[in-house]
Amino acid sequence: VLFRSLLKYFLLLCFLIASSCSGRNDNAQPNSFFSLKSYFNQQIDALQKSGADIIKKTSVDNEATEEYRIVDADWRREFDSFIAADISGEEFTNAYRIDTADEKTDSIHIAKTIRYTAIDNEQRIRLIVVQLDSADHISRIEIEAYKKSVFSIVTESLVYVPMKYFTITNYEDSGWLGKNELKVAGIIVIKS
To answer: What is the DSSP string of 112-142?
Structure first.
């Protein structure tokens, strides 16, 4: 009888130890990075529902601007570069430094800026800046990306102001071919 009681306590103790060593770390911090992918999917849904158009302007090397209107825009295609800049995956957890700053906009309102800065130069996305207004709504997103190859260095600058406009600017330095700048600006036209 004593042996059975000891055996039961021993098995219970083993079970408790085994369950506490499951390898799960409850103190681990979840990735708290802003998800560009989720945010832009929400923006795409809202823009598609609103039937918004785009007045698009493109220029090369700050010359000859072409302007045209896109009706029934493919918003996923328009925001593809923004979505591709998403760093919310687990593989980026230790690759970026997060800085937050509050800025007083007037006597009672405070806006917030969150900066995600690449810790090393190996990351394609070097910087993401998310600006929030005093009501914690996103007021602006800026992204800087960098890509180096044998043939060229490309720096991409993206800006999005929700439901108003976006810009995508690519600077390319290809050595023997020189430097080029391609700028695309999209003005979002919400239909009433």
So the answer is: EEEEEEESSTT-SEEEEEEEE-TTS-EEEEE
Residues present in the chain in total: 192
Q: Find the mean pLDDT for residues 119-146.
A: 94
Query: CB-side exposure of 12: number of CA atoms within 13 Å?
Result: 6
Contacts of residue 33, Cβ cutoff 8 Å, sequence gap at least 6: 87, 88, 92, 93, 96, 98, 116
Average pLDDT for 4-15: 43
Whether the CA torsion 183, 72, 78, 187 is positive or negative: it is positive
List the structure tokens of 105: 């906009």
Token readout for 143 is 């992204």
- DSSP secondary structure code for residue 124 in this structure: S
Residue with tokens 């295609």: 77
Amino acid at 91: E
Report the C-alpha gap between 120 and 156 in whole angstroms.
Answer: 17
Count of CA atoms in the C-beta half-sphere (13 A) of 134:
8
Q: What is the pTM of this model?
A: 0.79
Spatial distance between the Cα atoms of 47 and 84, rounded to a whole number of angstroms: 19
Can you tell me the distance from the alpha carbon of 72 to that of 52, in angstroms, rounded to the nearest whole number? 7
Q: For residue 99, what is the DSSP state? A: E
Beta strands 125-132 and 138-148, pairing class: antiparallel
Q: What are phi and psi of 62, to 5 degrees?
A: 55, 25
